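Hey,

The postdoc asked me to send both predictions to you directly instead of through the lab channel. I've kept everything plain text so nothing gets mangled by the mail client. Protein one:
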Amino acid sequence: MDYLHWGELVAPQDHTGGGQSCWSGQRIGGQGISLDDIDGGIMVQEVAHCQGLVWVGPHANPADHPHSATRNILMWPGQLMVNFRNRQDYGDVWSVMNGILERWDDQLMMEGFEWNRLRGIFLGSDPCGGGGCAQAASLGTNDQRFFLSGTMDPQDHWTTDLSMIITAPVPLPPTPPQGEYAVVVLNNSNTELARWPFDVSFAVTHGEPPPFVSFDFIVPYPQGAAAVRVVHGSTVLAELHPPAQGPSVAFQSVTADSTAVDARWTASHPNGAPLTYSLYFSPDDGATRMPIATALTTTSYLWPTALAQGTTQARLIVVASDGFHTAEATSSRFSIPRKPPVAAISAPVVVRNQAHGTAATDAGIAPQHIITGTIVPQTLIASQPLYLRGSGYDLNDGLLDGQNLRWASSVQGPLGIGQELTVRLQPGIHTLVLQAISSAGLIGSDSITVTVLADGDGDSLPDVYEQAHACLNANAADDTAADQDRDGLNASAEYQWGTDPCVADTDGDGYGDGAEVEAGSNPLDRNSVPLPPLAQAPAPLRFGGCGLLPPPAAQIIPLTTTVAYSVTTDAPWLTASPNPDGSLHVTASCQGVPGDAAGAILLTAAGRQPLRIAVLLEFGKERVYLPAVLSN
């Protein structure tokens, strides 16, 4: 961001039901944010949109432009991705650039091409990475810029909120290639010196169309400029002319207490031009500044300081603008008291019911909630280690390190120090408290309440669960690995899935619990049954012959199937394609493979279970004997 901090990062509007950003050339990231559980993902998506991401691309969704068509980013079947932050394994993550963010966990990811493109945008090597702009010719660093911020309604009424000349060298964004509208800079002879095209659209991705759309422009302002117009074709919607002289401004009073700062100033203009004001806060006696409010039309402002860092060197800076010329004033020094830091516990997670947003617990049987395939425990077991993760943030210190984070339990007392801990808790109801301590000694805290169930035999099954099922023994530690009902799930898996360890088909749909888990259907829902198999799974394939032996020959795999299927592989040396008779043609190449390698083939078809075929490429290890020729 430059000195102006163009655009808004968060701009809540009631007419939207989610995130919205940067349509019609706007620079707003995160419009419609409601501060709920998925807002972090929405913010990432909207800011990425503002950078031009996913306007085009290999997975762009033509029906929901400019979002990605990818929903869940699947790990390769049978493989798990380790989340190194919470030390848990996941079989899939949600695509953050999809148009619908509905994952309630913290597993969001960009696809590789998206990240590479966004990185190029930030580094400048791909400034139009999403296809949403065209690279403009670079201008000299001494060229002035003109900042124009305003709104347009459906009747083509333009309202200027804030404008000014920028004399400091500010980078120009790429010039849009075309547009029905434009910001035009003219000289005294009405000759165009610069043109900045744009388009206006009131189409929305969420909710009702807005009453107006907002724009922020930074355009060239060459020597000799005398007017700035906003035009639609040949129609002039607004025209701004620089006054002959500039404004003056001075602080009248700045009154600070523990919660707010009341700032008042006076301003005038020799030509009587209307003025707008921007107010900035400096925590370091004027060395740096950050915006508080812009486009003010009054000469006072009450600033709540709840999110301002504590300082004894605080100053305010007010900038007055007549639309072109600016003047500024700096207040006298004042103090803002420091606040306690913020502490946040992120693990264990208190999972809420997705439909109603309420806490859900089941102290006895089936303590889980399934969200897009992820099982989230609701209660804890005394015999199992508990992973704790938390963080602390102080407005002055920033992110607090582990030495300033302390954990305690209402039952066991102090648990340890650090961002992450692994502990064992006694049976009972615990209030877990995380304290964050700032360099000033101020303390902030967060707490959660967890129920820890007794496990007398230490088999990771709570006593109350084993006592509720006649096929289990609360005093025998070896029954957790047994499959009492012979459905393919041991007692530990039955507990995690919430199925009955004594009944092979918990939901009574005719399919065993283990078969449903393996096939991906829900063993707790009789209306959810496994899809039919695509074909009978063949044995793993082996290709030998690399190295000293002849290269491996292609293999034909007969498959008994009546449906058309698609084929993908996970290794560059492995190729596969379907034959007209339904069989599978598989080839392996030794080129570029340093040694033995493993790969897999995935077959998919609508309404059928995916089929995975393991493949092993082996290098020859047989000895080759060559004749020896001896000579004198």
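Protein two:
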Amino acid sequence: MKKNKKEDFRSRKVKKRRIIIVTSLFLGIIIVSLFSTQLALYLNFLIGNDVVVKLEADKHHLYLNHSEEGVIKFEEFITTNPFCSAECEYKFIDISNNEVIETNNFISEKLTPLHKEFTIKADKLGVGQKLYRFDLNCLSKKTLLCHTNEKPSTKSILITVNYDLNEEEQNLKTDINKKLDELSFRLGNLKREEKKIEKEFYTINKFFILEKLDYSKEELYQLDDSFKKLDLLWINYDYSSMKEELIEVKQSIEEYEKLFEDVNNSLFSYKETYNSLIDSIYDSKNDLEILKNQISSDNISIEFNKTISYYNNLTYIFLEEKSLEKKTEIVNIILSKVNNIKKKNDEELLKLSSYLYEKREELCLLTGECLFTNVSSLNETCSELSRIKSKLEEVDKIVKLCDNIEQDNIKIKEINFSKINFDENLEEIELFKYGEPKKECCIFGVCEECCTSQECKNNPELYPVILLHGHAFNEEVSADYSLEWFNGIQNRLESDGYLNAGTVTLYTGFDYPQGVLSLITRPITKKVSYYFDVVKDSEDYTMVQTKSQNIDTYSIKLKELIDIVKYQTDKPKVNIVAFSMGGLVARRYLQIFGENEVNKLILIGTPNKGIKGEVTDYCNLFGEKLECDDMDSKSLFINKLNTGKQPSIPIYNIIGTGCQMELGIGDGVVLEKDAKLHYANNFVVEGECNNNRLLHIELGNIDNYPNSYKFILESLKE
């Protein structure tokens, strides 16, 4: 019995010991596993394997007529470490109106893609472009098994919406356009008439003083203000207000057309009246010239001389008189005087003719001729009487009558009076030119005319900015992660006037029509990546990640990316801001393809003379071999890059220093002396490497190193 008890006790003890041993072993395995996992995850963090965000849209651009709607669909892919979760926030922003349409926070723990869609309506009347953007920000939260820098991974997609008038509005615009043309032409005619009237008024006033014309020139030219108002309504597409204003303007023009017709008739009447007075003066002079050879008696001769005196004096007074009414009175007096003497002379001539008629029989008997069969001229009669004077003593009395009228008369004054003649050549008047309705582009609530002119397109201040990433230290990390380095810089640039237009790859470049970003009135920034390529089949394009190529190949891809950005923006050149190896890619691009398409190049932390020592070893351990081989300071690539033709465009070079490295001072990856370029504007940023943070990477942390951003902004603005 006791024996059995001892065996049971021993058995339980062994069993308990086994349980303890097994438990200890199990706990040991767990601890080792946890430590190994932590170590592995921490290593992943150090080499850049944090949360990766991908964002896609089914379309990047919409064309909508007024009141039409379009739908944009977004798909979000968020990849994290298996032991991490990502806290994410998305925003759909109306950039034009500076409004957040929708925002939300969520936690992503699965690989299931998220979907969002938004309906966009062209609710603004007119023609222009609106901008929207979908921003997605995610960051991993640090836990025991999740090592992360807790910096957000960001993706943005810019959506452009070109809006236009609908069919009904287009027809209304055409109709109003015709009416504007017609009224503009009629206003031009009125202005020509006004200039003509003004000239004729001035011409008339050289001959006599005319009272003020019965219209207001100021009121006429106030129609210009009405047309300016119409122009403002026109360029702002306010057609309903224009219809009312056009009616008022048309009425005003019709009133002036009637008024000018009356004024023209009045001026013509004044001219004709004055010119008829001149005709009367000349007619009176001619009458007097004729009459002086037909004086019938001494009394008439005296009266005739008085009439000439009146005529001479009155014509002088006529010239001096400034009133048409007075001039008319003077001419009427002249006509009265001349007509009066003509009448008296005719009466005397009639008496003399009667007397001669009585004596004609006697003259016929004496001379054997009938001299006075018909008396048509007193002079002729007198001449005949003189001829027969020696034979006809009885006609002495008649001859004496003739002799008596041969007296000296007062000379009629010579006159040279001009008539009023109007210049029929109308002055050319430039018609009112109303502006073409402007395309409106608004950014963050500030609206202005879209960039449509060549002057705007060629403005260097509006050249797009390409943000070119550096070497991916870990070849296993998604190429998307390389784009994250510029997040802080791109966001800060937006606050300084450079619109964040997201990312462009060789794949996304096909999603935009040509020039779709050309209307934007600010320079844009686009992150670009040479780590993606496109495989094209007969029906579609497929994007592939290519991180195993040399820098020459990347420079060829950069050429394609620059072409895409130029294609989208219609700008002749770009500015490049390049980090680390991206600077070598950009410099090689300039050597191969030239400088015609690049305005300036800004380098940040670029190993311009290559990498050395342990940095080369680490690069070969974790990085892509071809890239690392090219960046080696002893490589043929670095030699060709620095001995070949150097660029003549402005080069700005931001260099990090302050970290003690194996072979000298630098930014933890690039030695200061190997970053400098003798032909560049070199800027040095002092810093340090600590807490597993390399200054080389931290140069993009503009909160900690504000001088980095300061040099970038100053270089872009210069």
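Summary for protein two, as requested: The chain has 20 helices and 21 strands.

Thanks,
C.
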